[in-house]
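Marked as duplicate of an earlier ticket. Keeping the data here for the record.
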Amino acid sequence: MNKKTVILLAESPVLNPTVIRPFQNLSVKYSVYLNSLLISNWIEILNAINENFLPLVLLSEQDKEYIPKNFFPDNFSSIFYKSSKLDNIREELIKPQLINDSKVLIIFYNSIGLKQSDIIRVFNLIHAEETTLVIAKSNRGKVILTCSYEIEKDLINPLFSSNRNFQDYLNFISGKDIFIHTLEGFFSIDDFEDIKKLYIELSKKESLSYCSPKMHESFNDLFVEYKEKLNV
């Protein structure tokens, strides 16, 4: 079981300014900008990992025409779902057989805080001899990633129906005969309170382990624009 797949996932449109849901206190323009930065940060982290895995990006079809040129590296594959909101990831991936016989790591694009070593550790927790699920949660109880062998419908679909609420998701799958590993201490950027928290966290030296100086500069362009509100 050496095959690995990483899926960077957005559950709804994030780049199309005509249909995205803007963040509170942010303009549509800067909401798209923040979304693009969060995706770019993941691309940078994943591309720096010295392990063989298939990187996929799963986006809404409504974003397709709004992806900047050369945004995704050549080694990344893109898949676009047609529904307005993704609720069955397995159906989108099983057809091209991208997840067969593979450890599958699903990362929600609007998360941040994982280092390269965290990702390697997550893959190492998945074993062929037992049904294992790794879940990482944010500081506010939001699921930011899951990892398992292939994708079991009964394990993954409740993630969407629970709106990625960590405790609700655990309640959904608690009756399953599986080993569950949980990781915590990460961030999910869902509202302006999360953006304020991100502003604080990126000012710390430790953040360089999951956000490069180049990415810091890009985030700072956003923070400068909204500095007064971020300091409230």
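See parent ticket for discussion. The mean pLDDT is 89.
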